[in-house]
């Protein structure tokens, strides 16, 4: 029996104001120890998922950063489902159960709140495993805790017997007198933890709350699979109802397992004080007893002659409360909300908008990056540097043909977009160097030069020639004889025919001769020439490359684009065969969308959206970044994230947004804003960039590769084009003037 624990992060924790606020609810605060209640819950239940299961966390989109940060701090991986709008526990549980059912038809969910305090983790896990035996038989088992005292803070549940038994009755939170009577009558505290087969819960929801099940299922269908999955807008149409009202009070499958371990939902300051671990910060108590004191760093609390009070200090609010009245704090909060609503929540700065980030990006390119790389990153003979150090010095290294070609394109594109710097000289001398030092006698181009210009590698790679053709198209705007540029490019195109196989695929030189990547950049060059008025051969080759993508590179069952193949163009075996690069899914999506526009082909557009959704599976982290690699199940591989996938994420989201319906468009523009922020995290004020972001944050301290500038400029090109789009508004027109 495989368990899928589901941590529910709902609840505002109103009675724990002012520490608990909507943007930082109680589950994310260390209230009884050094870890937050959410982190304690994660560590308590993660071992339940080790035998083939997976930990699932359900929370609101506004708590995304808290969830991801705190998971990272304790070193636990989870599938995160984010609700666009809170719809109570039934909808949240429905989404988790449907996700589980889709991944494991026999999976058993363990639903539990993120804010409960259970000191004995082993006892809790033993109880869950015992309850799972009943759940395996189709029952919905809740944990009923033996009460230690009458409490009006909890609901109650009456079993028909001891141990694992049926449920006779559920009761809402009573007053103190009725609570005492319940205990006398054998009632247990209702912990709100449920253990149930995913398929059993889905069936009960379909019977008793069909609107919940339909909305949750559609929300999952509309959301691209990802380790951090934002449920679709259909989730907002779910009835707002708790699982107790939706199912538990109506089902005939309810069971309860009596447990006898310490448990509290830490719902008010008196329960925090009872743990003995709730004090925080500096304080001095004189002739005072039984007090709970919490204060932020840099604040001292002094109290004299008081008994049994909570003193809770935050930057904008202070609560002083008799602990015996802790359940009534919500009344004070209601008055605060009426008179001083600004103190109901913390106010964080809003994340930078797409428009603001794009405008800042244009300024960075115009004032920093383009002048830097043309002045320092290119020699007087036209050869471009392979890299610049982070303190802006050229790195002495062998020079690749692809870098020369990419930099020619970058500066030609900068000129097209209005940059007033020395782009024309950079392009002209760059082309001259390309022809004089990289060109072989047979009309193809060598791969690598030594720093002094001597040939190091005479190999002619398809990948490099794709960028040469791409650069020559852009260089037509500078050269006195643009027709000569086209003749050179057509000559390269014709000579590359010797690298083609019977199925039309190109064979690359080197260790990976059968790969998709070189074809992607060939398609990019073909589209550039077609859009620029080149001969019909470019459109013909573009169509053939798209057919290859459809029929060979894109996995028919999985829907993702594979990277490596065998000699007969079947998927490679081993790790290479399972590798999926999110950046390439985005890049192919962008190219296929452009091709579909040129052909008026809706199927091509749909394929682009399909690849985009696969790329989105590789977007992860507190500040979302597109990872380098995932596997063919969408699971991250390693967690490293280079700069270039961020640019491809940005380009694809912008272009697809232009062709999307309203719901898709909002999501894609939100993605574009996130990609813009991700890209900014790599760029430095000096005009260079960090290339490799590590899984735990931070960057590898190494020189900025010149090859990345092409990706950066390409992202700006798409931003500029989207700013001119009639389909979209809100993104100002951009220029490098």
Describe what you observe in this structure.
- The strands form seven sheets. This protein has a five-stranded mixed beta barrel with strand order 5-8-6-7-10. Strands 12-14-15 form a three-stranded mixed beta sheet, with helices on one face. It has a three-stranded antiparallel beta sheet with strand order 17-18-19.
- The chain is 42% helix and 14% strand.
- Strand 20 (619-620) and strand 21 form a beta hairpin.
- By secondary structure, the protein is α/β, with parallel strands linked by helices.
- Helix 3 packs across helix 6 (198-208), helix 19 packs parallel to helix 21 and helix 20 (602-616) runs antiparallel to helix 21 (644-658).
- It contains 23 helices and 24 strands.
The portion of residues assigned to helices is 40-55%
Overall average pLDDT: 92
The helix tally amounts to: 23
User: How big a fraction of the residues is strand?
Assistant: 5-15%
Q: How widely separated are the two ends?
A: 64 Å
Low-confidence stretches: none
What about the largest sheet? 5 strands, mixed, barrel
Q: Quaternary state, please?
A: single chain
